Task: structure prediction
Amino acid sequence: MSPAVPARPASDRLRHKTVAAAVADSLRQRILNGELPPGVQLRQDALAEEFGISRIPVREALLQLEASNLVKIMPHRGAVVSGLSLEEVEDIFQLRCQLEPQLLALSAPHLTKTDLQDLHALSREYNRVLKTGESQRWGELNSRFHLDLLRHAARPRALTIVSGLLQDCDRPTRIQLSTPDDIARAELEHTQILDLCEARKFDAAAELLRAHIEHVGVSLIAIYRGALAVA
Result:
């Protein structure tokens, strides 16, 4: 009988797991802030050399990113940064333009004073992280703002769809918010939507929300088309 292969010590497994999580977090931030754009190949050997580690935790990190839909592991190409096509971006914003204003019209009359105070606080925090460049929080705070606006619509299936759409356009929206003009517009329109809700001008609030989403979509689609033209 051949001798049993000794199991890897628990401390080694934990160390690899911890290193993999750190690598995954570093790559995640670089993907989300656009430093690693869609289509870029992530080579395990190059990443292992960059981080000064073996390929084992790199492989584990890439699997974590694949589980988060930030990376696709493809035959013969390895890990590639995932992304949305131009057509998918167009679909996402068309759907948001249709759904969110309708849901706001249903939700806004039921927003309480406390709801509106919380939304103003959320908007201020969103504005703060836009100014400080904390791009990893932009998507989270933007999604919370939009979903909290719509929370009283009593349309759970539609809200689930909107939640998924907001998650899908997180990364693309970070690209769109890369200019001072777009940041200033996002700040202003969030505040104006809340002011209209407080003034009980619900139709105007819904129309401004539609225009707000439409502007982001148009700007982003133009960025995508420009990138395709260069490519």
